[in-house]
Specification:
109 residues, alpha+beta, 4 helices, Phage_tail_E/E, Phage tail assembly chaperone protein, E, or 41 or 14
Length: 109
Amino acid sequence: MDPKDQDTTPAAPGIPTENVTLDTPLHRGKQTVTEVSVRKPLSGALRGVALVDLLNMDTQSLHKVLPRITEPALTEAELRQMDPADLVQLGSKVSRFLLGKRADGESDA
């Protein structure tokens, strides 16, 4: 992955995050990743992808954006080897963030 494509900015306080427990843990050497935190992407993390592709959970778009908004930061190689059920879980979190509060049935009133 090109280093310029990785957003190393820590999540600012108040930016929503959601945790995903992986059905199939990822192995990084001696470390096992069983849970991934996904933070709401800011517009800079969405560069180079069409929002409609993310909403449709397009695999290539997810592979581009997820390394920028996950903790631990997932690599494109890890995402390509990921259990499809786990990729769908991560993609659904991204889609929900993009739809906003009103789409979740919340209101300002």
